[in-house]
Amino acid sequence: MEGLRVGGVNIRRGGRNIVAGAQFSAPAGKVTGLVGPNGAGKSTLISAIVGIERPEAGELTFEGANLVAMGRRERAGICAYVEQSASTEERLSVADVVALGRIPHLPAWAVGLGTDDETVVAEALEKVGMARFAGRQFSTLSGGEQQRVHIARALAQEPKLLVLDEPTSHLDIRAQLQVLHLLGGLAKAGGTVLLALHDLNLALRFCDWLVVLDAGQVVAEGRPAEVLREDLLASVYGVYARLIEGPGGPVIAYEGTV
Ligand SMILES: Nc1ncnc2c1ncn2[C@@H]1O[C@H](COP(=O)(O)OP(=O)(O)OP(=O)(O)O)[C@@H](O)[C@H]1O
Question: Whole domain around residue 98: which residue ranges?
Fold first, then answer.
C-alpha cells in the first residue's frame, strides 16, 4: 500500500529554506515517526502535508492523489490533523469539538449530526478516555485533556491519513502509551499514521518506520532500531547514547552531550 509520499519538497520562510528537498514515504498500515531536533522543520513539513501551506516545490501524494491540488473539503475527507498546540474553541463543549471532526462527512444540507455521527463522536471520546467530559466546556480542560479531545476529533473524522504534531507532549505517561497504542491500532486497520515525536524511546517502541529530519533535510529513513544508531544520535542530536536491550526491545540510554 502506497500511503503518503513526500517528493522533493522545499518550503521557504523568512527568506530561507526551512525544508529542502525532503523525500520520504509514510506507508499505509504503519505508524511513521517524524523525528529531529528543535527547529529541524518537522512542523513546517507537516503544515504542508496537511494543506496549511503550499510547498514552493515538490510533490505530496496520498494513494497517488495529489494533496497539493486538493480542495479543503476533499482533503478533509482523507486527512485529519492534530496540531502541536491546540487552538482554543472557547465556548464549545467537548462533544461539540469532537463533532467538528464529522463535518467532512455530512451532506452539504445537513443541519446537525445524524445518529451514526453521534455514535462515532461518543466512541472517539471513549477511545481517548474522555467520555465523562463530553458535556464540559472545552476551555475548562487541562492541557493534556484538551490534547486528548483534539485526538478524539481527529479520530471522529475517520481519516485514511492521520497526521499528528507531537500528540503526546502534554500527556502523562499512561495516556502517552494509550494514545500510541491507539495509533498502532489505526495503522493495523490499514490507516496511514504520521506523527512528529520527540521521545526517541517511544519512537523505538511504537513506530514501525522512522524519518529523521535535520536542518530541513531528511538524513535517515527506515526501521527505528536501524535508524536510531549511536552515530546518528551524536551527529543529529549531539548526544552520546547507547542502545541497550530492554525487556520489550532496544532502549536508548543517554550518557551526555557531545
Ligand atoms: N516565518 C518564519 N520565518 C523564519 N523562520 C521560520 C519561520 N517559521 C519557522 N521558522 C524557522 O524554521 C525552523 C523550523 O521550524 P519548525 O517549527 O518546523 O521546527 P520543528 O522541527 O517542528 O521544531 P520543534 O521540535 O522545536 O517543534 C525553525 O528554525 C524556525 O525558527
Answer: 4-224
Ligand 1 neighbourhood includes 3 CB (under 6 angstroms): no
For residue 242, being part of any structural domain is answered with no
Residue 177's domain is classified under what CATH number? 3.40.50.300
Give the chain's domain count: 1
Whether 19 is in a domain gets the answer yes
Q: Give residue-wise pLDDT tens across range 188-227.
A: 999 999 999 999 999 999 999 999 999 999 999 999 999 9
Pairing of strands 161-165, 192-196: parallel
Cell 523568512 belongs to residue:
14
Is there a domain that residue 244 lies in? Answer: no
| Per-residue pLDDT at 247 | 87
Q: Check if the beta carbon of residue 179 is closer than 8 Å to that of residue 130.
A: no
pLDDT attached to residue 205: 94
* For the CA of 36, the nearest atom of ligand 1: 21
Decide whether any atom of ligand 1 lies within 6 Å of the 52 Cβ: no
The answer, yes or no, to whether any atom of ligand 1 lies below 6 A from the CB of 39, is yes
102 CA to middle of ligand 1, Å?
31
The CA radius of gyration of the chain, in Å to the nearest whole number, is 18
Q: In this predicted structure, what is the pLDDT of residue 1? A: 63
